[in-house]
C-alpha cells in the first residue's frame, strides 16, 4: 500500500484562487519525497489537504490505504505536520508544548513525557525544556515544531519549507535529524523551493507549478537531465 495516493485533486479557495488543478501523486512508504515549486505553486495547499488543514474541492486522497473522507481521524493519527508558521502556544514551557500535543492523540501524560524527553534530547532542546517557548531562537522554535509533530510516532511526517529562514549550520543539523528518522522508517514529505535542499535529502521529487505536477521522477534522473 502506498503511503500517499492523490488522484485528480482540485482546490479552489473561496477567493477564487485555483490552487490545485488536478494533482496526481503516489508516494511509497519509507520514501523521502520533495514537493518542489516556486511561491504560489500549490505546495502548501497540497500538504494542507493531506493533513486536514485545508478542505479539498474534489479528488481522492488515501493515506496508507485509507480514504481521507471516510477515515479522517485515523489518517490524522498517522501524520505529523510541521507548518511554516510557529503556531504553538508561546507562553507554554517547551516540554509542555510537546507533551500536550500527545494528549490530542490520546496518549497518557506519562507516555507523552517519555516521548518528549527523547525527542528534545535528539533535537538539542533538552537544556531548554523548562524555558518559555517564546524565548527560543528561531531555529530552536523550528526544532520544537518538529518534536511536537513526532510525539505520537506518526508513520508520515510532512514539513512545509522546514528550513526557510534557518541558517546553514542549523539547516545541516535538521537535515541530519530528518535523514535519521527516515532511515528508521518514517516516510517524509517536504516542500521546498530550493532544489539544493531536495537534492541533499530526497529520493523522489515532484515539481509543481501553477497547481499542476509538471515533473515526477527520482532525484538522480532529474539531476542527470538538468
Ligand atoms: P505554495 O505553498 O507553493 O507557495 P500555496 O498552496 O500557498 O502555494 O498557494 C497556491 C495558490 O493558492 C496561490 O495563488 C495562493 O495565493 C492561493 N492561496 C493559498 N492559500 C490561500 C487561502 N487561504 N485563501 C485564498 N487563496 C489562497
Ligand atoms: P539560531 O539561533 O541560528 O536560530 P539555534 O540557536 O536554534 O540557531 O541553534 C543552536 C545550535 O544547535 C546550532 O549551532 C545548530 O547547529 C545546532 N542544531 C541544529 N539542529 C540541531 C539538531 N537537530 N540537533 C542538535 N543540534 C542542532
UniProtKB/TrEMBL annotation:
Q: Does the keyword Protein transport apply?
A: no
Respond yes or no to whether keyword Transport is given for this record: yes
| MF annotations from Gene Ontology | ATP binding; ATP hydrolysis activity
Q: What UniProt keywords apply to this chain's record, in alphabetical order? A: ATP-binding, Nucleotide-binding, Transport
Every copy of the ABC transporter domain together lies at: 4-226
Query: What is the protein's given name?
Result: ABC transporter
Q: Which organism is it from?
A: Halothiobacillus diazotrophicus
Its lineage reads: Bacteria, Pseudomonadati, Pseudomonadota, Gammaproteobacteria, Chromatiales
> What range of the full-length protein does this chain span?
2 to 227 of 309
